[in-house]
Specification:
One of its GO terms (cellular component) is P-body. This protein is of the alpha+beta class. Helices cover 21% and strands 35% of the residues. A hairpin with a 4-residue loop joins β1 and β2.
Length: 179
């Protein structure tokens, strides 16, 4: 008889705590997992077409104490490296029939973060500090944000739960731009 796997017989609370420990090994600022999906594949756009790039597995939406407060983590089952993606207010989420496309603007983000003065000596900024706010964010279009990088998430559908699109839309109310 073979030994039981680590997840067999785990209570939901034990599984949650185990998953949180795994994520916190990569990013100790992660404080909670607020949703997860059993199987997601990550695709990147190379300028001509979508390419699957070796990240597939369970995906966890997380909250953390550092800025930005939200992101997702793909526990990779097909490679040695996991995929972690913070979600910033200027990111665009685009819903398609099969994919959730996430458009990031790395140059805009870098310039925005570089313009934020350091926290006063001895103080730590909260991850929702108003210094991170982007004035008139919803009036900015993609051309004003400059160079963009596109990735897409494909998720195995589960009829018993809310779709990733619906969950990400709820997150977008607080953190990111949903188109």
């Amino acid at each position: 008889m073979s030994p039981p796997t680590a997840t067999l017989g785990m209570s939901p609370a034990a599984r949650y705590n185990h998953n949180l420990r795994v994520l916190r090994k990569r990013d100790p600022s992660i404080t909670s997992i607020f949703d997860q999906f059993s199987h997601v594949a990550v695709y990147h756009h190379d300028g001509k077409s979508w390419q699957k790039n070796g990240y597939e597995g369970s995906m966890f939406l997380f909250e953390r104490t550092k800025y930005p407060p939200y992101g997702f983590y793909v526990l990779n089952r097909v490679g040695v490296e996991d995929y972690i993606q913070p979600l910033y207010p200027e990111d665009d989420l685009i819903e398609t029939e099969k994919y959730l496309i996430i458009r990031t603007f790395p140059d805009f983000l870098a310039a925005r973060l570089a313009a934020i003065p350091p926290a006063p000596l001895g103080q730590v900024r909260h991850n929702f500090d108003p210094v991170y706010d982007i004035p008139n964010l919803h009036e900015l279009d993609k051309t004003q944000k400059g160079r963009m990088v596109n990735l897409a998430l494909w998720v195995m559908n589960d009829a018993k739960r809310d779709s990733m699109m619906r969950i990400m839309k709820r997150l977008a109310l607080f953190a990111i731009n949903f188109l």
